[in-house]
Structure formats: structure tokens, C-alpha cells
Specification:
This protein is an alpha/beta fold. The protein has two domains: 48 residues, no CATH class; 232 residues, Leucine-rich repeat, LRR (right-handed beta-alpha superhelix). It is built from 13 helices and ten strands. It has a ten-stranded mixed sheet with strand order 1-2-3-4-5-6-7-8-9-10. Helix 10 packs parallel to helix 11 and helix 12 packs parallel to helix 13. The termini are far apart. The relative contact order is 0.07.
Length: 297
């Protein structure tokens, strides 16, 4: 009811019509508005429900352009007026391509709201350390968030270190982490150390994708320390285009021999020779789990 009430607000009429491509007649608008007002008065207790929770329950197939005031449930118009409209896909997924640091912090504040049930959060621009600190706080408090993706965001090692602090928190329930083409070359070794600690501390993480990053053999080595740990439950690992050679296959072979959870492994577009493939074959022969999908080329 609150969702309808907001859409029927006189000041937002044109925005609604532009977004949905539908023009509401004055008579229909007036009738819906009166019905909504009457229902809200009759069921005042429902006003305790947060707007973000209502968005979670709405099922549509289109994208709705909303201001952050509607998204966060702010009452103060001036507090939300500095925000630019965001594209919010109402399937529990965010895809953010550009947002100033100050606004990102306020968005993180909303994500920490216990009524926020966004499950999939995706970033497509560079994040600095302070931004990742705010995201770390989200990961340590929001138990609904299960998928986090950074694509071509150029995460510095210091920024990812802060992010990993949130990923290691016992309250973090993240299941899928994608860092595709997101790391600086000089930070890949340190990044793998941080990710290794996450794999040890977070048994909920089942998918890890650091593909298209120059991890090299040293990075894969540190990553496998966490992968081999008994707490690690990774089922899908994507190490494609990571500048790996046969030396990485030695580490992966030892991981394959102890993992009982891994089902999918992608190592294509690397510099693997016959020796490397042989190491992987030996690991597969002694694996304790069941590999369902292995991609080498």
C-alpha cells in the first residue's frame, strides 16, 4: 500500500509515466489514491514496515528509476535530494556503474538496514579504501546479501583488505564473490593472501571468481593455502586468464586431492603445458570429491 501511495504522489506523476510508459487517467489516479489512503488508515500497524522491505516483495519484469529517497525510506526531502536516480532491478539485485563516494556511504547505510533484503550487489567502477570500509560494514551486518560482484573496478590491495575484513566476519553469509578484472597488477599477491584468509574463515563462500587478473603462480600458491583448508567449501573456482603456468597446477593438484566440495574448475586461457595438465590429472585421480565441470582450454 505504501508502495502504491508513493507511485501515485502528485509530484512524481510524470516520473512514473516516463518510467513505465503508461499514462494514468486522473479518475483512476484519484480512485487508487483514496483506496490507498483508506487502507492505510484502517491498517495503521503496517506503517511500521520499511519501504525497502516492500520493494523486496514487489515482482516486476521491468527496471524502475527511483530516487534514493524512495529506496532508503528517508523522510527528509533535502537529505535525499543530492542523490542521482539509480536503476533498481526489482529482483533483489543492484547494478551500480557510477556513484560518488559520499553517496555510496549513504547507500551502504541503507544496505545495513535490517529490512533491506537485497541479495545481489554488483559494482562496475573503481572503489577506494574508504568505500570498501563501508562495504565491509555491510557484509558484517547484512545476512541477506549472498552475491557480490566487482567487474573491472580496479580494486587496490588496501581496499580489498578492508573488504575482506567484512568477508571474514562470522555474520557474513556471502556465497558468491566475483572479482573479474578488478585487481591492480602490483596488488595481486597481497590480494590472494587476503582472499586465502576469507576462504578459511567463511565456510558459506561456495563460488570464487578472480578471473582475468594477473595472479600468476605466486598468487595461486597463496590462494591454494586457503582452498586446501578444511573450512573451505568452495564448489566453483574460476582461475581463467590469471597468467598461471605449470607451477600453479602443482598447487591446484594438491588442492584437488583434499577438497570434498569442489565441483567446477576453470583454468582456461593460461600458459599451461603438458606438465601442468599432468599435475591436474594426478590431482583428479586422487580427489575426494566429484568434479562435474573442468575447463582447460
Amino acid at each position: 500500500m505504501q508502495f502504491l501511495f508513493g507511485l501515485l504522489h502528485k509530484g512524481k506523476g510524470k516520473a512514473v509515466e516516463t518510467t513505465f510508459g503508461i499514462k494514468l487517467s486522473p479518475g483512476l489516479r484519484e480512485g487508487l489514491l483514496k483506496w490507498t489512503e483508506r487502507e492505510i488508515k484502517d491498517k495503521a500497524s503496517r506503517l511500521q514496515i520499511e519501504l525497502v522491505d516492500l520493494f523486496h516483495s514487489v515482482t516486476v519484469t521491468c527496471q524502475v528509476s527511483l530516487t534514493c529517497q524512495h529506496l532508503l525510506g528517508f523522510e527528509e526531502e533535502e537529505r535525499a535530494s543530492t542523490f542521482v536516480p539509480l536503476a533498481l532491478t526489482l529482483n533483489q539485485s543492484f547494478q551500480l556503474c557510477s556513484l560518488p563516494v559520499s553517496q555510496l556511504h549513504l547507500l551502504c547505510q541503507a544496505l545495513r538496514n535490517p529490512y533491506c533484503k537485497i541479495k545481489d550487489l554488483r559494482f562496475f567502477w573503481r572503489l577506494i579504501s574508504s568505500s570498501c570500509g563501508a562495504l565491509a560494514a555491510v557484509l558484517s551486518t547484512n545476512q541477506w546479501l549472498t552475491e557480490l560482484e566487482f567487474s573491472e573496478t580496479k580494486l587496490e590491495a588496501s581496499a580489498l583488505k578492508l573488504l575482506c575484513e567484512g568477508l571474514k566476519d562470522t555474520n557474513c553469509k556471502l556465497q558468491k564473490l566475483k572479482l573479474c578484472a578488478s585487481l591492480l597488477p602490483e596488488g595481486s599477491e597481497a590480494v590472494c593472501r587476503y582472499l586465502s584468509c576469507v576462504l578459511i574463515c567463511n565456510p558459506d563462500l561456495t563460488e570464487l571468481d578472480p578471473s582475468e587478473n594477473p595472479l600468476a603462480d605466486i598468487g595461486v600458491k597463496y590462494l591454494c593455502v586457503g582452498l586446501r583448508h578444511s573450512n573451505c567449501k568452495v564448489e566453483k573456482l574460476d582461475l581463467s586468464t590469471c597468467h598461471s603456468t605449470d607451477a600453479s597446477c602443482v598447487e591446484l593438484s594438491s588442492f584437488l586431492q583434499v577438497s570434498q566440495a569442489l565441483k567446477e574448475l576453470f583454468v582456461f586461457a593460461n600458459v599451461l603445458g603438458n606438465t601442468g595438465v599432468q599435475h591436474l590429472y594426478e590431482g583428479l585421480q586422487h580427489t575426494k570429491g566429484i568434479i562435474e565441470n573442468l575447463v582447460l582450454l
